[in-house]
Amino acid sequence: MERKIVAIGGGKNGRLKSDGTREPYETEIFDKEIIRLTGKQHPNFLFLRHSQPEPESETGYFITMKNIIDT
Using one digit for the tens of pLDDT, what is the confidence trace for 29-71? Predict the structure, then answer.
């Protein structure tokens, strides 16, 4: 079985900010390719948060990735 690890750093992924606006979606191409590389309909992923003061960024990231998977 072939396994893949993909790591990226930096970039905004369009998550919803606390004021109701969205961050720019700079990593869309990368996110879609990472999901495609899994070959799975419902892949697992891990988000390691660092130097981000807003804990809601984790939730926003998962929602953004789930939206890609569900489309």
Answer: 888 888 888 888 888 777 776 665 666 666 777 777 787 777 7
Domain positions in the chain are: 46-71
Distance CA 26, CA 54 (A): 19
Residue 5 in contact with residue 52, Cβ under 8 Å?
no
In 3D, which of 27, 28, 23, 33 has the Cα closest to residue 11? Answer: 27
pTM: 0.61
For the four alpha carbons of 9, 37, 56 and 19, in that order, the dihedral sign comes to positive
Residue 61 exposure: Cα atoms within 13 Å on the Cβ side:
16
Helices of type H across the chain: 28-38, 56-69
